Amino acid sequence: MSVLDDLAGGLVVSCQPLPDDPGDPMRDAYVQARVAAAVVRGGAVGVRVNSPAHVRAVCAAVDVPVIGLYKHGDADVFITPTAGHAVEVALAGAPIVAVDATDRPRPDGRTFADTVRALRDRTAALVLADVSTVEEGVAAVAAGADAVATTLSGYTAASPHADGPDVALVGRLAAAVPVPVFAEGRYRTAEQIDAAFAAGAHAVVVGNAVTSPLWITRRLVASLRGTTGAGAPQR
Ligand SMILES: CC(=O)N[C@H](C=O)[C@@H](O)[C@H](O)[C@H](O)COP(=O)(O)O
């Protein structure tokens, strides 16, 4: 039985600070470990965590599978961009490592398949391929990925950019690959989560809508401005 089976049919919560705001006060290993403990108490079957330090802290705080990743750099490929980052996050304790599996150039000049090989040689971690299209998902599985996730749909030139999640990609991947498909990216509501499972998702990953007070508050404040009208006179 694989650790992926523990995630079947469940909600995985991504416990990460906002990538585009270096000042996010949630950028702290202790804080993320407490957030992870809270979401597990609430019923999350797994968590997704960025960086070796946060993975170490979260692994010590929860007893569910941790999907580790390592965001690094300003290049297009920034989710676990090199084999070195992948090995490091696995050695920090993550039983599953999420890796960008798009066909864009990687900072170490190696391929996704090279990264899978490096992980297999040095660790027992499974590989979750973060993709943006069905073609990338098929190629990732051919390269040895144990599961695929729709994480990068909406963030590459090859994928549609929408406000909501790419549920259609979940369905297309589920029909095309023989491995578990994770629905991830802009899931905010129970209806969207239900739709992903109906489309064939193995598990659904929700991030900012649960774990980022900064992101949630900014959205509410923006909608407040939208409702009242920007610059409307105070009464
Ligand atoms: C594109 C990218 O960098 N995605 C990252 C992947 O680890 C995270 O920043 C997201 O928060 C995560 O995928 C969950 O998505 P959402 O927060 O939309 O539920």
Automatic annotation (TrEMBL):
Residue ranges that the Swiss-Prot or TrEMBL entry lists as coiled coil: none
InterPro entries: Aldolase_TIM, NanE, RibuloseP-bd_barrel
Keyword Transcription: no
EC number(s) on file: 5.1.3.9
Enzyme class: isomerase
Any Gene Ontology CC annotation: cytosol
GO biological process: N-acetylmannosamine catabolic process; N-acetylneuraminate catabolic process
Pathway(s) it belongs to: Amino-sugar metabolism; N-acetylneuraminate degradation; D-fructose 6-phosphate from N-acetylneuraminate: step 3/5
Functional summary from the UniProt entry: Converts N-acetylmannosamine-6-phosphate (ManNAc-6-P) to N-acetylglucosamine-6-phosphate (GlcNAc-6-P).
Entry-linked PANTHER family: N-ACETYLMANNOSAMINE-6-PHOSPHATE 2-EPIMERASE-RELATED
Protein name as annotated: N-acylglucosamine-6-phosphate 2-epimerase
